[in-house]
């Protein structure tokens, strides 16, 4: 299934969905059914395609209006004056099937080549402008900014033979079975006409295609090579479909053996059988040969014939084209699995002016990427947005939101509805959306100011500890907030729990999402540590037993939390309460405050 084009582009390629329908221009690379899915429902003017592709599309979907299409033949260019910036489009041979084209887009968004389905052999690439083709050992004169690449066999390590070599294997296999009364050719797919044409020319015989069973193949041959078609069902060469091919071959071979007749020949030119065997991890002795036809257990002869590039051909094509970014158009085979992409299309840092961001029209809020996290699930958390090529969403979204994920080796377009802003998480308990942060700040300030006034009479307990209080109060008088916010109190408490010295503790304030350093609010001995509570301290704790209780929160704030269907948080202690705890200490004789123990209560 093809992928949607990014948000920053005014055109779609091979996709017919509510999202792509909002594009101003549409391009159809070829007439395979998987690239036409949805066109009957979401087709809109104009659709650029070659004449052959247009003819087949109108045959498959007669309800389409011919006026929707604009013919753009291989080698031709068209200039489109778009409101957001003019651009040109040129069609090139994709070496895939009759009428298949690659589209080269050049405009303000950059230079973009969409291969559609293709087999990028060196001969095919030589048709592209020379400025995009690198000479041996040199860089290209002009780099492609984006390459939307057919990676169908990007995971397959087999080196596919050329199309001509595969056709010769088919012909050679037929020569080796001169007594076969019938030769069944499983070549009903658009793009395999080359095989049928050369077989017909080599053996001087036409080929029978049952148009009631293989209507699409019959129509394709009627336009591509009508001279080889035969209406005689007794013809020696016949086209059959792949479904139930093995079952039919086993049955006819068995009947021929029972009747002591020569067995028919079943030939299937395809790559799937070879790719499947490669995935099974067969040994070198078990692997089928790519240089001649191979027979399976059902009596079907296989020839490796591919209309897509092998992994080696993809690597070679990337070395010649040297694109800046590569996006796979054929999930689940991903471009990031290619060596060239791993080596050249990885950027540990995206600059704000990177053309990739312009293409996807997404603001980048976080630039840095940890190289060690690339291609891991953790890496997807480091950058906010992504380009996705792993699938296509066909649901009708009110607004198409394209997000840039953090996998710099594979660009993935995600058409799922935009998720809501993740809520702020305060110490794992209190969760509040960004829009409600000001309400919370106002409420908790009122709460802690009131709390300080209520606890003020109990602040005179230990004259020795009070010696540090005047400097702190002076700081507050100079502009330091009189009551600690929830975040500040948490920082103090975290420091106490970690056993750190508090002589120079700096508390950070959270203001609008930015963290700012504030002055030192608490000064104690550097050797301050947690010790056991004495009986007197336990009694004093009861005086502030309400600390950590959600009942102290304002009623409107509690209602706000409950409306979000989350637990009401237990507020952290204020500065006054922390000071109260620090004053209830054990001072050993002659210690000179070198062993000061801080006591505190936790919520």
What does the secondary structure layout of this molecule look like, with pairings?
Layout: E1 11-13, H1 18-21, E2 25-27, H2 39-42, E3 47-49, H3 51-60, E4 69-71, E5 77-80, E6 87-93, E7 101-107, E8 110-114, H4 122-125, E9 146-149, H5 163-175, E10 183-185, H6 193-203, E11 207-208, H7 215-224, E12 229-230, E13 237-239, H8 245-258, E14 265-270, H9 272-279, E15 294-295, E16 300-304, H10 311-321, E17 325-328, H11 339-344, H12 355-360, E18 424-426, E19 430-432, H13 437-455, H14 463-466, H15 469-477, H16 486-498, E20 505-511, E21 514-522, E22 529-530, H17 535-542, H18 555-563, H19 575-583, E23 597-598
Parallel strand pairs: 1-2, 2-3, 3-4, 8-9, 9-17, 10-13, 10-14, 11-12, 11-13, 14-16, 22-23
Antiparallel strand pairs: 5-6, 6-7, 7-8, 15-16, 18-19, 20-21
Describe this structure in words.
The structure is a single chain. By secondary structure, this protein is an alpha/beta fold. The chain folds into three domains: 11-156 and 310-345, Metallo-beta-lactamase, Chain A (4-Layer Sandwich), CATH 3.60.15; 163-304, Rossmann fold (3-Layer(aba) Sandwich); 426-598, no CATH class. Helix content is 29%, strand content 15%. Helix 3 (51-60) packs antiparallel against helix 7 (215-224).
Features:
3 domains; 7-stranded mixed beta sheet; globular; Rossmann fold; disordered C terminus; 23 strands; 603 residues; Metallo-beta-lactamase, Chain A; 19 helices; alpha/beta; 6-stranded mixed beta sheet
